[in-house]
Amino acid sequence: MAMRSIKAAAGLTALMVLAVPARSEPITFSSDTFQIIGGMSSEATPTRRGNYRGMETVDFKTELAPGTILVRTRERKLYYVLPEGRAIQYGIGVGREGFTWSGTDKITRKAEWPDWRPPKEMIAREARRGNYIPVHMLGGPDNPLGARALYIGTTMYRIHGTTQPWSIGMAVSSGCIRLLNEEVIDLFNRVDVGATVVVE
């Protein structure tokens, strides 16, 4: 992978996560929408949402420059670093066992209601489980990449929204970092292409 200092669990190739697409009016999603995306089968689908209360500005001491994104996988938190010892904290969904990773890279692209092209590895893996994943899906309310996507380096990892809001705070993805749609829109509007991303 092109990510500097990146480490993927079990030598796995970077894979995708989940999300929710773009509209100006509120969108509702059923709990079973694309439940297998991000590596979850129907039998693995949680029955309740994680204990996430929403983004907030917090005290945050760090040597990272303002504008940096810091992902703390174990905490299931993403921090957007602000000046003067502050950060905006977001709850996230992270990679399930065997799909976590760490590294430092840059945001190389931003997209509103992005198309989704799942990796061949994910399509094959899900086919073995009897689940169908399309080769390509246009952006929209049912698209697993959600309302916004921030692309990390040249990897297949993304920071994006989700069609599974109950999964925030949980380890259920194939390696991407997912946020609630409304919160990924907020982050998207703050982050510049070229911003540093640190995943711990």
Can you describe what's shown?
This is L,D-transpeptidase. It is built from two helices and twelve strands, in the order E-E-E-E-E-E-E-H-E-E-E-E-H-E. The protein is mainly β and 200 residues long. It has a single domain (4-41, 52-199), classed as L,D-transpeptidase catalytic domain-like.
Keywords:
about 200 residues, mainly beta, L,D-transpeptidase catalytic domain-like, ten-stranded mixed β-sheet, 2 helices, 12 strands, globular, disordered N terminus, L,D-transpeptidase
How many DSSP H or I helices? 2
Q: How much of the polypeptide forms β-strand, as a percent range?
A: 25-35%
Structural class: mainly beta
In the CATH hierarchy, what is the class?
Answer: Mainly Beta
Percentage of helical residues? under 10%
Order of helices and strands: EEEEEEEHEEEEHE
Poorly predicted parts? 1-49
- Quote the CATH topology: L,D-transpeptidase catalytic domain-like
Span of the ends, CA to CA: 17 Å
What oligomeric state do the depicted chains represent? single chain
Mean pLDDT: 78
Number of strands: 12
| Net shape | globular
CATH H level, superfamily name: L,D-transpeptidase catalytic domain-like
Protein name: L,D-transpeptidase
Organism: Taklimakanibacter albus
